[in-house]
What does this fold into?
Amino acid sequence: MAIIQDMMPAFELFQPASVNDALALVNRHGKDAWVMGGGMDSLDWFKDRAKKPKVVVDLGQIKELRGIRQQGDGVEIGAMTTLTQVATNSLIQSRYGLLAQAARKVATPQIRNQGTIGGNVSQDTRCWYYRAGMPCYRAGGNICYADTPTAMNREHCLFEADRCVAVSPSDTAPALIALDAKFVIRNSKGERVIDAEDFFVGPKVDIKRMTVLKPGDLLTAIRIPGTWAGARFYFEKLSDREAWDFALVNVASAMIVEGGTIKQAHVVVGGVANRPLRLKPVEDSLRGERVSEETAELAGQTAIWGAKPLNHNHYKVSLMKNLVKRSVRGVKV
Amino acid sequence: MEWFRWERNPWGQEILIGLSWDLIWVAVAAGALLIAAHALLCYWRWRGAGAGTISETLLKRLPEKILRHSVASRLFHWVLAASVLTLLLTAFLPIWGIKFPWVTAHWIAGLVLTAAIIFHTVHASLWKGLGLIWINSQDLSDGWLVVKQALGSTGPAPGKPGKNPLENKLFHHVVAIATLATIITGLIMMAKVDTPWWKRNPYILSDDTWGIIYVTHGVGSVALITFIMAHFYFAARPEKRWITLSMLRGWISRECYLDHYDESRWPVAAGASRDAAASVAKQSEAEGL
It folds into this structure.
C-alpha cells in the first residue's frame, strides 16, 4: 500500500515552451511520458509513489495554453488557465456564471491558484483504494476493492458501474458539459475537437482512463459556444467539508426559460458515476414545463431512476434527487 | 517478453494477475507458422496428388448425398463459432486498443458457449456415440504412416479413416481442452458480477487462486487464437472445400465419401443413406441451399 513519503521517485523533467515542443516530447516518450498541468493531481500520485513515470512533461511554461479569449460568440479558455482566473474572469462571470461558480467551488484558494481548468477536467478519480496504489481493475488488476461485501464505498458511484465503482471528481466538468463546451485535443497527427460530454469515458469503454486522452494527446483549449450565454444557471456542490474536499455530489444546470416555461435545459451531475452524468431523461421531462415545485419534484424523481447504490452510499440517492430538484427550482440563481 | 502479469497487493505481496498479453503475438506467430509449414508441405509433397478412380458399381450402391452433419451438429457448430468469435473479439480488441463496451457481450457470449457445450456433450454422448471421436490404435498407426509419408518415406500408404480422421479428432480434443479451461474459469469469474441470484464477492477466493484462474483463462483464450487460425486455414483450402460446405448443407457427395473414407470404418447402410439423403435433400430444399 502506498504511504505518503513526500519524496518523489526520480524522473526526467521537461518544461517545453510551446505546444509543438510538448507534442514532440510526448510523442517521443509515448507511454513513459506523464503530462502535468498544475500538478495538483500529478504530485499526489508521485509523492504516494503509486505512479512512477520516467518522464514528466510540465506544461507550465507554455504561454499559448493560458488565457481566456473571446472567440466568435463564445470564449476559448486555454487548458493551462488557472481555476482562479476562470472563476474571476469578467467575461466568464457575466456570460457563463455556471462555470465561474463551479471553478470557485474547487478545493481551496491556494489550489485554485495553481490548479488549471485542463487539469481539473483531466484529473484521475479519487477512489481511495485506487489512489492508495492497490492493484484494482483501474490499476491493471483483477478486483475492485471498493465493491466487495466489506468495502468502504461511501464516496463511490450510483450509476454505470462496470467492474470499477469510482467517480469523476471534477467540479468544472459538469458545468462545461451543461454549457455544451468543446474540448480541443492536439497530437502529432493534428487537432480534433470533441464535445465535452464525449471527452469523458466510463469503465465500460476503458477502465484505465477517465478521459479520451491517450499517450501523445494534449488537451490544449476548451471552447464554450454562445448558445447558453446568459442562461439561467445553477451549480451546487455538496461535500463533507466546505473547502478542500471533493464533491459527494455536484449538479450543474443551464436552462433557457421564457415566460416561466423551460424551453431548453441541460442538467449534469458529478460524483455519481465514473464520468459526469448528463441527465437526458430529466432534460426531456423539463422541456416545455413551467418552473414549479411539481416540475422540480418530477425532475428529482426522474434523476435517480436506475440508481444502484453500493453498501455505504445509499444517502447519495436522496442527495442527488434533492440537488436536481433544487437545480430546477433555481434557489441559487 | 514476459509470461505473466504481476502486481503488488495491499499487503506488499507480489500477486499473479494474469497471462502477459505479449503471448497473443506468440499465438498469432504459432498459427502463422503452422499455416505456412502446412502450405509448403502441401506444395512440395502433395502437389498433383489426385483422387483415385471409383468404380461405377460402388457408386451405384450409394445415394448421391451422404449425410455427414445432422442439423443439430451444424447448429451446434455455428453457435459455437459465433460465440467463440464474439468472445475472442470482445476479449482481444480492447487489449489491442480498440475500445468499446465489451464486458456484457463477453459474458453473454460465454454463457451461450457454455450452453452450447452442454448441449453438445449430451447430444454426442447419448445420440452420436463417443466412439466417433475417441482416438483408437488404428488412428494412431495410420497417423504415423501419414507423418512418415509427409517426411518422404516410401512405406505402405495409410488406410482411409472413419467418419473423423485423426487430425480432426486431435483438433477436437485440443480445442475442447482450451475451451473447457476458458469456460470453467470464466464461470468462476462470474462470482465478480452482480446477478439476481448472487451479489458479487471477489473474496471467495484468495488473490493467488484468482491469479491462477486468470492465467488459465488467458492460456485457453490465447491458445484458441492459434487453433482458430488453423481452423480457418483448413476450411479455406481448396481440397477441403467439400468438407467445409458439408458444415453448411449437411451432406457430402458419394464420390467424396468413397474417396476419403473407409466404408468399413464409417459404414453407410444403403437404405439408411437413402433415407438420410432424402431427409437432407428435403431440408436443403427448405433452406434454399
Chain B has two domains: 55-68+250-289, 71-240. Confidence is low (pLDDT under 50) at residues 283-289 of chain B. The first helix of chain B runs from residue 22 to 45. The first strand of chain B starts at residue 4 and ends at 8.
